TrEMBL record:
Name of the protein described by the UniProt record: Cytochrome P450 90B1
SUPFAM superfamilies, per the entry: Cytochrome P450 (SSF48264)
Signal sequence, start to end: none
Alphabetized UniProt keyword annotations: Brassinosteroid biosynthesis, Heme, Iron, Lipid biosynthesis, Lipid metabolism, Membrane, Metal-binding, Monooxygenase, Oxidoreductase, Steroid biosynthesis, Transmembrane, Transmembrane helix
Length: 499
């Protein structure tokens, strides 16, 4: 027997005894914690497969419904390979969001950071996240929304809607994605829609997105592997644009450089490294394109089945057009946008029932006690936004699409007959903090106001110019990202509404 073998067999019993002793100590300590009830599932994978099983986006899903029924709104599980506390409790969700960086921090699976980049705003925490977010907020300032982005949103909306042909069947989801991608590509890197380089980037981005929502298997032939390759291609493209701008800045001087897009703004006003800029731009392209396009597709889906809501929308937008016709104006301005009050109710209801963002990934930085339950330091925490949005104790008849619930502090009153819910009660809790479609706290979505502007302007021109209906049955599913399996096929008819 060699010396190494002798040491191995001599030390093995000691190591085993030490491990058993540690396990006993852990088990002795655990009973002092009052963990939420729940089921940890299978070793390592836990209950992840059941949690991620596709289901209708307008429901909590069978997994959540069963677990809430059995364990309550706060329960423990093993998800994404980690011990997890799942929250369908509006109070705990708000508590988590408000204590970002103090008691909790963002903690997405490594696969997300691997494909979006370690400098992506989605996965960053602390000072670097605050810095990146400040850059985004400066570029998406209220002034820029009013003076520049509103015009861009309307121009790109009309480019898409005017391309629709009478009685043809097409994917509303693809059209919404075309609109938001072209808008973001223009405002991030000044890429014009229809140009060869724009279309090439879009093709690579579609492949990239398929990998983001797929299983993180970095094996030949998988969607994740193809997405990593597309990510590399996209970053090389962005870096090429950066080099062009940098050369232009050297030749013309930094102060004379235009900053009409995000890339120009970042190069002129930040000290970010090349890698940081690449990940920032990719993450904003992802965030600005994907969620907004899904929200627009959801609005098209909900509205086609709600004639009374459509009628009221058309009345609101006709009034805006008639007022502009008298003044001789054609383009929308900020005052027009602020008049779209019922449209904002439609947007809120679309986000509530459609649940574009279903849950968030957080981690406990300290031992936390909430409502008598202990959340141990290092445990994952999942605030489930969709479960709160569909909670009947917060929203009456939560599975009905009823924009009126957002009027007059949630009380329809006499206006209920104008909504598609046929007068169903639609009160919501007085504490509207429970509604968090754009997150909350220090990580509140930097593009939330742009997203609402996009939806409002798109709805404005859609309801004034088209009637539409589903060409084939389809409905939104959570995969876990919301998607229409058939692409939401619709058939449109042009209408002419004279002011």
């Amino acid at each position: 027997m060699s010396e190494m073998e002798f040491l191995f067999f001599f030390l093995l019993p000691s190591v085993l005894l030490a491990l058993i002793f540690v396990e006993i100590l852990i088990k002795r300590k655990l009973p002092t914690l009052n963990l939420p009830p729940g089921n940890m599932g299978l070793p390592f994978i836990g209950e992840t497969l059941g949690y991620l099983k596709p289901y209708s986006a307008t429901t909590m899903g069978e997994f959540m419904e069963q677990h809430i029924s059995r364990f309550g709104k706060i329960y423990k599980s093993n998800l994404f390979g980690e011990r997890t506390v799942v929250s369908a409790d509006s109070g705990l969700n708000l508590f988590i969001l408000q204590n970002e960086g103090k008691l909790f921090e963002c903690s997405y699976p490594r696969s997300i950071g691997g494909i979006l980049g370690k400098w992506s705003m989605l996965v960053l925490v602390g000072d670097m996240h605050r810095h990146m977010r400040t850059i985004s907020l400066n570029f998406l300032s209220h002034k820029r929304l009013r003076t520049h982005l509103l015009k861009e949103v309307e121009r790109h909306t009309l480019l898409v809607l005017n391309s629709w042909k009478e009685n043809c069947t097409f994917s509303a989801q693809d059209e919404a994605k075309k609109f938001t991608f072209n808008l973001m590509a223009k405002n991030i890197m000044s890429l014009d829609p229809g140009e060869q380089e724009t279309e090439h980037l879009k093709k690579e981005y579609v492949t990239f997105m398929k990998g983001v929502v797929s299983a993180p298997l970095n094996l030949p032939g998988t969607a994740y592997r193809r997405a990593l390759k597309s990510r590399s291609t996209i970053l090389k493209f962005i870096e090429g644009k950066m080099n062009e701008r940098t050369l232009k800045m050297k030749n013309n001087g930094r102060e004379d450089t235009e900053e009409d897009d995000l890339l120009g703004w970042v190069l002129k006003h930040s000290n970010l490294s090349t890698e940081q800029i690449l990940d920032l731009i990719l993450s904003l392209l992802f965030a600005g394109h994907e969620t907004s396009s899904v929200a627009i597709a959801l609005a098209i889906y909900f509205l086609q089945d709600c004639p009374l809501t459509l009628q009221r929308l058309r009345e609101e937008h006709l009034a805006i057009v008639r007022a502009k016709h008298k003044s001789g104006e054609r383009e929308l301005n900020w005052n027009d946008y602020k008049k779209m009050e019922f449209t904002q109710c439609v947007i809120s209801e679309t986000l509530r029932l459609g649940n574009v963002v279903r849950f968030l990934h957080r981690k406990a930085l300290k031992d936390v006690r909430y409502k008598g339950y202990d959340i141990p330091r290092g445990w994952k925490v999942l605030p489930v936004v969709a479960a709160v949005n569909l909670d009947p104790s917060i929203f009456d008849h939560p599975h009905l699409f009823n924009p009126c619930r957002w009027q007059n502090n949630g009380k329809c009153g006499s206006s209920s007959s104008s909504c598609c819910s046929s007068g169903a009660a639609s009160n919501i809790t007085n504490n509207n903090n429970c509604f968090t479609p754009f997150g909350g706290g220090p990580r509140l979505c930097a593009g939330s106001e742009l997203a609402k502007l996009e939806m409002a302007v798109f709805i404005h021109h859609l309801v004034l110019n088209y009637h539409w209906q589903l060409a084939d049955f389809d409905q939104p599913f959570a995969f876990p990202f919301v998607d229409f399996p058939k692409g939401l096929p619709i058939r449109v008819q042009r209408q002419i509404l004279v002011p």
